Amino acid sequence: MMEVSGAPVGVLLQRPWLPVSIGDCRLLAKIWFGDSAYHILLTDMTCVWEERMDSAAIQSRAQELNRRLRAPVKAFFSHLCAVVQPCLSGGGERADGEAQISLTRQEDGDISMRLKSELAGLPFYWEFHCTPASVTLVCAQLVRPLLAMSRLLQRQVEQLGGLLARKDAEIQDYRENGATLSRERLQTDVFEEQTYREDFMAKALPVVSSEQQDAHGFDAELQHLYASVVAHGNARKRRLSEERCVEEEDEEEEEEEERPAASEEPDLTPSAGVGSVRTETAESDRGLRPNGQTEATRAKMADRAAVQQSLPVTCSPAERPASKPKKKKVGLFR
User: Fold this and answer.
1) Which residues of 77-97 are buried (b: 16+ CB within 10 A; e: fewer)?
2) What is the pLDDT of residue 69?
3) Cα–chain-centroid distance for residue 92?
4) Suppose 39 and one of 6, 144, 161, 213 were both cysteines; which one would form an S-S bond, judging by CB atoms 3.0 to 4.6 Å apart?
5) Gap between the Cα atoms of 105 and 294, Å rounded
6) What pLDDT score was predicted for residue 40?
7) What is the distance between the alpha carbons of residues 246 and 234, in angstroms, rounded to a whole number?
């Protein structure tokens, strides 16, 4: 199955931003290489560029840049990964100088990276055509993780300030009970958070602003913090997704349990309705027979029918044979 949509969801997000130097350009890069596809992100803190390529696009570009190349993608893609990854992972060019990479900014805002190396003794060329990334991708890969990192670091600073305040209280208790320092140079001032913040901003901010190369890179500790924040966010998303799936399954089970009870009610109602319709139709048919009977006559006939139907119910089986001979005797005497 061919990969066509770049890195799977969450895989590229877990990759750290690495400082990269290409010529005079200092960038942050995030790369993912699959079996026959890749997805790269580059930023200079002014814009974010990306390129994602599937197997068919890689095959087409490789033949365009290397006219004599007739090999399938898997035959040369491993070589491309081995050459590109050191260049885009903060390692610069390869030690043997085999790979050469250059970056060019286009007038339309895109950037192009050209790579030259050797494959089976022949020159192998490759180009990355990176276009500005969408706002959604930038927020997911850079903005939200950085905001989470800043909140985490802020909480760490607050906890450290509280710890220093407790340490000062402990030292003051020692002094009040007669403890003294063996060396005067170990004595410290009482920690005041507001004073410390003002002094830190006054001294550190100009230094950070002047060191542009450090402002565009993540050191090892920040990369670890970035990876921890992203991993925690992915775990939280998976947990919420599993909870939603469980809730949906419970709702489906409840609907299945309620469905038979709801289907039984309409089965009884139509049957009663059909019976009543048939009864009314039969009675209307009897009332509409063309025999010239009036409403009063039909009412009497209905009363007689009711009486005749009720007689067999009220009479006992012993009285029925006795009534028939009595009618025959009356007939004989007449």
Assistant:
1) bebbeebbebbbebeeeeeee
2) 83
3) 36
4) 6
5) 106
6) 94
7) 18
217: helix, strand or coil:
coil
Residue 54: which residues within 8 A CB-CB, separation 6 or more?
Answer: 2, 3, 4, 5, 36, 37
Inter-residue contact 29 to 88 (CB < 8 Å):
yes
What pLDDT, on a 0 to 100 scale, did the predictor assign at position 118? 86
* Predicted local confidence at residue 221, as pLDDT: 78
Judge contact between 80 and 119, C-beta under 8 A. no
Kindly state the tokens that stand for 329: 């005797």
pLDDT of residue 25: 86
Check: CB of residue 11 under 8 Å from CB of residue 39. Answer: no
Residue with tokens 């998303």: 237
Token output for 120: 């089976």
Give the residue carrying structure tokens 């309409």.
266
Mean pLDDT, consecutive 10-residue stretches, the chain (334 aa), reads: 53 87 88 91 92 92 88 86 84 58 90 90 91 93 91 92 94 91 88 90 81 60 81 72 70 67 48 45 45 53 54 46 50 39
> Using CA atoms, how far apart are residues 89 and 16, in angstroms rounded to an integer?
10
Asked whether 22 and 102 are in contact (CB, 8 A), the reply is yes
Residues 6+ apart with CB under 8 A from 51: 38, 39, 40, 128, 129, 130, 131
Instruction: Answer yes or no: are the C-beta atoms of 40 and 51 closer than 8 Å.
Output: yes
- Give the global pTM: 0.62
- The answer to whether 32 and 252 have CB atoms below 8 angstroms apart is no
Cα 113 from chain centre: 33
3-state class (DSSP) for residue 38? strand
